[in-house]
Amino acid sequence: MFSPSIQSLIEEKADSFIIPASRIAFVEDENPLYHAFLILTKMKYSKIPVLDRKQKVVGLISLAMITNKMLTPDNIVIEPLSDLKVKDVMQTEFETINFAHTNFETQLHLLVDNPFIPIVNDNNIFQGLLTRREWIKAFNYVTHTIDEKYNITEKCVSHEEN
Amino acid sequence: MFSPSIQSLIEEKADSFIIPASRIAFVEDENPLYHAFLILTKMKYSKIPVLDRKQKVVGLISLAMITNKMLTPDNIVIEPLSDLKVKDVMQTEFETINFAHTNFETQLHLLVDNPFIPIVNDNNIFQGLLTRREWIKAFNYVTHTIDEKYNITEKCVSHEEN
């Protein structure tokens, strides 16, 4: 069970959890790989969402996925950057979150193995990102406020009960 | 103040917080950039520590730092990968943590703006990494166990006191 007191504190911060789509760098699946190489070189995010023309999230792409295509047994080559499209290289297996149907427990669980999760609506349209960074901030808030708002006392457990 | 009850729960998990140096990919400052390009393309980490020959942490390097050197106004070129060394490209401003002198509050605070922090000993020798992922796991543990071990009741605050 997710602690009700921690849940209550996090709900105070939940609005600031989502990094809205308008603030997120993304690329389109039909873009040449060259374009994603430039965006990822210039942005601070190491992996970004890939959208189709209807703003649906169809993949994720990182620089490592791109540079992996540039490796040949003998050399590093730049031709794949113009020969391939983002959709040829992107990761297509990934988690998404629909905030309407996902509780905190699931969000936190997904963030153990994913630095960020794309948020979508019921039509799979990209809404923004949930990130580990925002949860670290929320956890920071919880650790500093829980004792102001709650009385917390250790439960007395007898040795027999253990 | 960092909540004592949460601190106590996290201390149960603190040993597993550090990813030991033996499990971390790193490069050396004198390596050709080509080497870092290969390591970062093949590893899951988007940024890794740079060590000198004495195992001291002297920098951090990401694929984006490398690919940024490959951009010219007209083209993407591979020559910098053999012409430059890791030390010519790495980030030299970064935080480190010495576990002997750093409390949980400071660790959590540093992880807001850094996905990971290199851990060093008193001689600045690399010991491992502290990561957001490990703290997310710890937070997950706290949210599921705090109500088993503690009685938590909301404080009664009169409207006058607010």
UniProtKB/TrEMBL annotation, chains A, B:
Residues 18-76 form the CBS domain. It holds the Pfam family CBS. CDD domains: CBS_pair_bac. Gene3D superfamilies: CBS-domain. Keywords: CBS domain. InterPro entries: CBS_CbpB, CBS_dom, CBS_dom_sf, Diverse_CBS-Domain. PROSITE patterns: CBS (PS51371). This is CBS domain-containing protein.
